[in-house]
Structure formats: C-alpha cells, structure tokens
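Quarterly update from the structural biology core.
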Amino acid sequence: MQKVYTRIESIVGNVVTVRAEGVKNGDLALVGDSYANVIKLDRDLVSLQVFAGAQGVSTTDPVKFLGRPMMVSFSEHLLGRIFDGAGVPRDNGPALTENMIPIGGPSFNPAKRILPTRMIRTGIPMIDVFNTLVESQKLPIFSISGEPYNQLLSRIALQAEVDVIVLGGMGLKYDDYMEFRETLEKGGAMSHTVMFIHTASDPIVECTLVPDLSLAVAERFALDGKRVLVLLTDMTNFADAQKEMAITMERVPSNRGYPGDLYSALAARYEKAVDIEGAGSITILGVTTMPGDDVTHPVPDNTGYITEGQYYLKNGHIEPFGSLSRLKQNVNGKTRNDHRALMDGMIRLYAQYQESLEKRSMGFLMTEWDDKLLKYGELFETKLMDLSVNIPLEQALDLGWEILAECFEPVETGLQSALINERWPDKSALKQ
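Predicted structure, tokenized:
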C-alpha cells in the first residue's frame, strides 16, 4: 500500500522536501495532482522536483510515492506520435498506457555487443563519403548557435536508411519544434518516427528526462530487431538543466558551475549506443552547441572523451578537417574499392586549396597550380560540401572523380594508377 504524506517540510523553487521512508532516488511521486521525481535523499529527508513547477503547491498537499521510476509506454503505436518530456502526448492523440517500461536503466551488457560493421547512408556526401556514419556509433554534432544543426538533423531523419527514428528535443524554441514536425510529416518520415519534445517553456526537469525516454524506447525497438537512429538536440541544454537542478540541490559546483558528475551523466546516455548480436542496433547523433565556439567548454569537452569522433558544423557546412568518424574505416573499405583512396586524396587537395586561399589573401604571387587548387576548392564546396546536396554514396564518389578530372591531370592527384585507370572520367563526356 502506498503511504501518503501530508506534511511538506519546505518548498524552494520547484523542489519540495518531505520526510519519508523506503524511498529510492529516481522514484516517481505525486505532489497533489502533479508528478514529481526524487532527486535527493538525506536520510529520511526526500527532495522532489515537481514537473509542472511548485507554484500553487502548499505545505499541506498530499505526497504519494509510487514506488517506481519514471516509465514510458512501448509498442508499435508509438510510431508517428509526439510526446513531451513527461511522456504526455503533444499531438492531441490518445495517451498510451500499455506495456510500461522503466527509463534510465543501465547500458547494454558489453558481452552482447558486436563490432560495428554496417554503414548508415544519409545522402549527405560530407557524411557518407568523408566521415561515414556507422551503425551503433555515438557521435556529437559540435556547433555554435545560429548554425542549421536542427535542419541537418531533419535531413538525416528524412534520408537515413534505418528502421526507426527517435527524435529527442531539449529546450527547443517552439518554431524549431514545429519545423521538425512539419518537415518530417511532409517528407513522409513520421510513420517511422517517435518524437519526445521539451520546449524552452516546459518544466526544466522534463528536459533531463528526454534522453532517457528516447533511449528507453530505442532500446526496446532494437531488441525487436530494428535499426534505430536516435537524434538528440541539444545536449548542452540537457547539461544546463542538470546544472540548474544541481544548484537547487545545493551540490558543490565543478567547472563553470556544472555538477561534478557531468561526464557520468553524458556517458550514461551516449553509451546506450549498441549493435546487439542477433537483434537490432542503436545509433546516436547528439547536437552539442558550444557557447562562444569554445570546444573547451565543459559540455563539448566531456562529450569528446565519450564519443567516437564528431561532426563540426561551421559556416553552414560540415567542416572536413575538424570532423572525424573513428569507425569509418570499419565500413568504407567495403563500400567501393575507390572510396578510401578518393576520400583521402580529395581532403589532401582541399587542404592545399586552403593554403592557396591564404596566399591569395596575403597578396602572394599565384602559380598555375594555385589556380587549379582554387578552382577545385570552389567546386568541392559547391558540389559536395553544401548541405543541400542530396545524392547516394556511389553518385557522390563519381562526382568526386568528375571534380578531380575537371581541375587536374591524373598524375597531379596523387592517386594510385590502377584506380585512375579504372575510374578516371572521359573529359569529352564531362564537357557534354
């Protein structure tokens, strides 16, 4: 029988404190008619974060502990639905109450993981060709405010060759939420998408629950044999929510006011990425905005130690030098025989193009080679780096060869003669 407590010791912000026994950290409770989460235990003194805020809560309101953590419904009926950070429908659809599963559980047993070996195609050349996304990978998208990172996630959601998309939004502007919704509905992707959305006006505690809700659902889909791609935006908002809650709990702050367990909080979510033997997989892409474009900020800094590379979004495109997919070598040697060599050769020439740009800006004398590099760089940026480009991997590789042939002689590319003999385009055909 659930015991009801009728004396609240204190109310500070959205945190209420009550004396109770037999309560566990993370348990769910009802404070009056509002759900709350146990966030701190000090012997029999229990602190609860009220989801809807403590405004209107009095010290005589009943507090009932439910004896279980936060749970979410799991079934095929989730697909096409939109929920908030408490699992309540945002789309005016019916509430789902069957097959409730707990959120925030441990990561998958490492003994049951298998080595990632399959590529996830996105139709974006800067990902597919140069920093291939690998199934079960965990990668952040490092960005600054103002960059089109949410638009990039929308495109990936529309085009990624996976079975299920789980989109978790944290601290989103309402316009960004509606743009996600409209883009996926118009693109026909909502039928295999689940969305958990926390907007900037929603209770702060719901922001911290969005990744756990998203990953709990993703894990069950993966166990059912589905290839699941989890898209999270923005993990910095998640970390800021953790910081705000830590301040409320009067915890000793660490670097820049963030809680000392920030690394553990981020790792507990990212480590849910897994390729399960005999079942499906979870792949995680999480946007991490960098205040002041500072990669040493605690959130991107800790994230970099956890994840397997990163995509840098700068000036409206995925920056080729800072971006890295550490697992790409597991798959891009199996896609097409020219993939790895072409990728390396084109990036090497693009680095030389950057040097030629610097020479030109400083007024140095430009050589014929510099002119070739400048032409190459402009074509590379327009035809491959631009995020509006949407072509399959094989077509992107062919386009790479065409760009090289338009700017250089075969010997100038530094590529192997065998590959050049096999793949070099006919210049007369290019002109036509």
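Residues 130 and 197 are 31 Å apart (CA to CA).
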